[in-house]
Amino acid sequence: MVTITIDGQKVQGEKGETILQVARRAGFEIPTLCYHPLLSPYGACRLCVVEVVANGRLGLQTSCTYPIEEGLEVLSRSPSVVEARRVVLGLLLSRTPQVQLIQNLAREYGITEPPFPTETPEERCILCGHCVRTCNEMVKAYVLNFSERGIERRVGPPFLEKTRQCIGCGACTIVCPTGAIEMLLNREGVYFDKEYAVYEEKPLGPTAAIYVPSPQATPRVPVIDTDTCIRFRQQDRSNGQIEDACGACQMMCEAGAVDFTQKDEVLDLNVGTIIVATGFQLWDAHKLPQYSYGKSPNIITGLEFERLSNAGGITGGQILLADGRRPEKVAIIHCVGSRDTNAHEYCSRICCMYALKHAHQVRDKTGAEVYEFYMDMRAFGKAYEEFYERIQEEGVTMVRGRGAEVQVLENGKLRVKGEDANLGKLVSVDVDMVVLSTAIQAPHDAGKVASLFGLGRTQDGWFAEAHHKLRPVETNTDGVFLAGVAQGPKDVPDTVAHAGAAASMALALLSKGEVTISPTTALVDEKLCSGCKTCLSLCPYTAISFIEERQVAFVNEALCKGCGTCVAACPAKAIIARHFTDEQIIAQIEGLFRVPELVLA
Amino acid sequence: MSDKKFEPRIVGFLCNWCTYAAADTAGVSRMEQPPNVDIIRVMCSGRIEPAFVLKAFAEGADGVIVSGCHPPGDCHYNNGNFKTFRRMPLLERLLEQYGIEKGRFHWGWISGAEAPKWAQLVRDFTEQVRALGPLEWKRQLASKED
User: Would you call B43 and A580 a contact, using CB atoms and an 8 Å cutoff?
Assistant: First the structure.
């Protein structure tokens, strides 16, 4: 432990710590701009200067770089310190007069006007080097650095050219204190350009690669998305050569709970029943370009709206446009990708009700005008119709006609065009925000899941139930059940009912303790079997085994499902298919032709 | 000679889970089909031996249909239809060698959800076989031996 004195007060620190670290921990206020706890100290902004007594002499030193020594005396707010900071802030304010952060700091030291003129008042970069150090020390992409000297000094990639070294992680944009770096939406590369106005992206999703999935997540622990996490991306990108990029979360975690070595565990379970509840994914609204999804940040899907409106979301539940303003007019378009021969022909079932809910939320939270473009209103459930009535009474304008097109106008507004079938007229309205109720569909890997469990799929892509009216939770494979939207679009009450049914049937099967098997199993006649083993490789259920002692095949009736493939293949006709024997089938064929022909109409 | 229109007799070997279900749905939904196809149900198209098809023609069928679940993933028994997929082209060549014209044998895949496709097949194939006229294979073979 090392003891130093700051402004007459004794404070303690560890050897190797800087004055700034010790001072801040003890509660002394020292302003900084270029300091960041996770980056190496830089000493560039000179704001953190303090007076240090060394060898009997007073000198101004940057507290962020000066290591503590036993007996050091520090003055953190002496007149020279204050004057030094004032000069520095005056210079900074003159360089970047429009940056709020600098304005605020300068005001604290009595400066309200920039003391010097500048030819580039829109400048935002204060040359603090946060971005440079982040890119080099944490991300280890080595894209950004300083170049030139004096007033020409600037930050950027080599020669300010776009470079493929940039992994588009956005760390520089996050760490920049003044918002001087913009990240282009197409992620081609970080384009550091002073001419761009500050663009503060308000992403409608998690803002970091490590995040708690939702406020209600159980257990309430963060997860790391390895696709966006810098550490994992750099490992992938460099074939493992860069192993320790970033790791900021691990550094900050006081509990030491971040473990990058965790891997997915593959569990081998023996189970009696399986319930497939794999849900849905959203259809991609980019596929119908007439809705201009992706061309304006104010055209969002219903799910994105849900997140916007959620109290745990990034706006705290306020309905805001991308630039932070409140919308005055909102359009909600139904059936985007549903009931459409160019997308999905089916109805997604849940959208009418949530679209009405969204209309209510917009009216309630912002008072904006709401235009709801719908084809038919599907308010089929308990109290749903009454809710629809209530929304109409709230003053939502219902336009009965499919929203045909959304145009992004030059001024950023969105022009929604459609036909109002009730009026018999084409209508057009300019709004600030458009919410697209996009279709839901089977997840992209539904085919693989189906093969895995022997499930069929209906034409609309959802998993096939055993009977679409009478057996909604069973499948054609015994012991495998379906629950929820995996079987078809349904809302929460219906999903609960459906899943409850699946759970009951699964439990009933388990508690019975025995399984009914197909009676149409195959049987090998050992006298005829020549041991050619043709049937063995054909069975999809590996139900046929070979008895070495007698050199004959044997069918396990518990596994045999009775498809008859082995029967058709056996060259010796040694296997019979119970209830579908050759004799029986041939008898049917003969029966068709050997009775007197009935007169065909 | 009666001048009744020739009514082809067609035998269809359909797998229980897909095409048979489609045919059932087509019937229940009262989709229009001529009555010329007689259906023999098997559990899987993989059960169908070429001998059945030959037997059908021998007994007097003018046309034969074999239909099962769509490969690669629809087969209720996983890959029974793969075996059918391998057997049918060979059978086609065999039939031609025995003097049964190409248009008399149709093999394909119709899933349980494709009832209209089944009805359309019945309509189209009936006309296709009607145009070819009666096969009378037994008589043909007998006359060739003379």
Answer: yes
Does residue A19 belong to any structural domain of this protein? yes
Pairing of the two strands A329-336 and A182-183? unpaired
Report chain B's mean pLDDT, rounded to a whole number: 90
A331 lies in some domain: yes
Inter-axis angle of helices B137-145 and B50-59, nearest 10:
80
Identify all chain B residues contacting A592, using CB atoms and an 8 Å cutoff.
9, 11, 38, 40, 56, 59, 61
* Residue A383 and residue A465 in one domain: no
A538 and A466 co-located in one domain: no
Q: Please check whether residue B61 touches A, CB under 8 A.
A: yes
Does residue A526 contact residue A535 with C-beta atoms inside 8 Å? no
Partners of A580 on chain B (C-beta within 8 Å) are 42-43, 47
- Total count of domains within chain A: 5
Is A484 within a domain? yes
The whole-number pLDDT of residue A382 equals 96
Nearest CA in chain A to B49: A568
Same domain membership, residue A529 and residue A396: no
Placement of tokens 């939270």 in the chain? A365
pLDDT per residue over A405-420, tens digit each? 999 999 999 999 999 9
Q: Of A456, A568, A601, which is closest to B46 when you measure between CB atoms?
A: A568
Contact A409, A394 (CB under 8 A): no
A408 & A288 share domain: yes
Domain boundary (A512, A536, A551) is at A512
| Chain B residues with beta carbon closer than 8 angstroms to that of A582 | 49, 51
Q: Does A71 touch chain B (CB under 8 A)?
A: no
Which among B38, B40, B44 has CB closest to A563?
B44
- pLDDT surpasses 50 at A512: yes
Q: What is the H or E stretch that residue B42 is in?
A: strand B37-42
User: Which of A390, A410, A441 finishes a domain?
Assistant: A441
Instruction: Find tokens 């249909």 and name the residue.
Output: B65
Q: Please, is A112 exposed, middle or buried when counting C-beta atoms within 10 Å of its C-beta (0-12, 13-18, 19+)?
A: exposed
The class level of CATH for B10-145 reads: alpha beta
In a domain, A54, yes or no: yes
What's the complex ipTM?
Answer: 0.91
Cβ atoms of B54 and A431 within 8 Å: the answer is no
Domain CATH code at residue A575 = 3.30.70.20
What are the backbone dihedrals phi and psi of residue A234, each rounded to the nearest 5 degrees, phi first?
-65, -35
What does the pLDDT look like over A180-220, one tens digit per residue? 876 654 444 444 443 332 233 334 444 678 888 777 788 88
B127 touches chain A (CB under 8 A): no
Report yes or no: A104 at the B interface, CB cutoff 8 Å.
Answer: no
Q: Which residues of A32-55 are buried (b: 16+ CB within 10 A; e: fewer)?
A: bbbbbeebebbbbbbbbbbbbeee
Domain that holds residue A583: 522-592
Whether residues A41 and A177 fall in one domain: no
Residue of A447, A564, A592 with shortest CB distance to B11: A592
Both A387 and A411 in a single domain?
Answer: yes
Mean pLDDT across chain A: 88
> Which of B49, B62, B81 is the best residue to mutate to test the A interface, defined by the most A CB atoms within 10 Å of its own CB?
B49
Interface of A with B in 579-598 (CB under 8 A): 580, 582, 585-586, 588-590, 592-594
Note the pLDDT tens digit of each residue in B40-98: 999 999 999 999 999 999 999 999 999 999 987 778 887 889 999 999 999 999 999 98
A423 and A291: one domain?
yes
Condensed to tens digits (0 to 9), the pLDDT of residues A443-501 reads 999 988 987 887 888 889 999 898 888 999 998 777 899 999 999 999 999 999 999 99
Residue A572 and residue A502 in one domain: no
> How close, in Å, is residue B48 to chain A by CA atoms?
6
CA distance A483 to chain B (A): 20
How many other C-beta atoms lie within 10 A of the C-beta of residue A464? 22
| Distance (Å) from the alpha carbon of A261 to chain B's nearest alpha carbon | 37
Q: Could you tell me which chain B residue has the CA closest to the CA of A475? A: B76
